[in-house]
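Dear colleague,

Thank you for sharing your sequence with our group. We've completed the structure prediction you requested, and as agreed, I am returning the results in plain text so they can be pasted directly into your records. Please verify that the sequence below matches your submission; if there's any discrepancy, let me know and we will rerun it promptly.
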Amino acid sequence: MAGWTEIKISINSKDTEKAGDIANMVVPYGIYIEDYSALENEVMEIAHIDLIDKELLKKDRSKSVIHIYLEDDANPAEALAFLSERYTAEGIEHKLETSETMEEDWRNNWKKYFNPTPVGNKLLIRPTWRDDYDADGRAVLNLDPGLAFGTGSHDTTRLCLECLENYLKNGDKVLDVGCGSGILAIASILLGAESALGVDIDEIAVRTAVENAELNKVGDKFTAVCGDLTEKVSGKYDIVVANIVADAIISLSEGVTEFMNPDSVYITSGIIDTRGNEVEAHLKKNFEIIARFEKNGWVCFAAKLK
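Please find the predicted C-alpha cells below.
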C-alpha cells in the first residue's frame, strides 16, 4: 500500500479482543485481525460446509495477527512505542513488525517524524534535537520521549494538554496517572502548577519522565513512581489527569476520588469514541461531567466530584 505503513502485531489468540481494543487507539478508523482459533466452527456457521482450504488449516490457531495501516503523515514510531507500552502493561505477550523496519530498528528511526508542535494557546512541544522553531511567546516544553508514549502529536495527548490549559490554576498540585514520557505533568508545571506526580507501570516511562523533567529544569517540582494506577499514590491533588485506555479509566475512577480535593478537576482521555458513552456512565457514578471534548474519534472528559 503506497504511502502507508503497516504494523503487524502478533499475539496469543486469548488476548485478541483486548489487544484489538488497544490497537484501535492508534487507528480508530479500523483494523484487520487474523484469528483462526475457531476456524472450523466459523466456516460451518457461515458457509455450512466442512471443507476448508489447506493453507488455512496450516495457520497457527494459538496466535492472532492484528494489522494496522498508518497514513504517510503519521508517526509509526510513536504508535509502536505506545502499543508496546500498553501491551506490556496489560500483560499481553506481543511481537511488533512494520512493513519498512523490524522492531529492533524503529528505536533509532523515529525522530524524523517528531516536529515542533504548538498545542492550545500557550505551549510548544519541541523535540530536543530540533532548533528550527519559533516559540511565538509560548512556553517551550523540551521533550525526548524515547520509547515512552507521549510526544504531543497524538490526539489524546493534545486533548489533555488543551484541557490542562483550560482548568489548571497557578499553584495547583497535579497527579498524572499513566504518565508515559511525562509530557502532561511537565506541561502542568510549565503552565503554573506547584508540583506534579507522575505514575506509570512501565519503568522505562518513569525513567524517561524524570529525565524530561530535568531537561525542562523542573525536576525539583516533579516526582515519578512506578506503579499500577494509584497503588503508590498518597496525598491530595487539584488536578488528576489520566491519558490511558478506557478500561483503565473505568477502574481508576472507582478509587481516585480519595486523592482529590472537593473542587479538583479530573481529566481523562485515551477513550475511543465508541466507548465514550460507556466511560461517561461510569464517571457519573462519582463525578459531574463539566466538559466533553472529541477529536478525530477520541473523547476527553473533564469532571468534578459530585
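Summary note from our side: DSSP finds ten helices and 14 strands in the chain.

Kind regards,
the structure core
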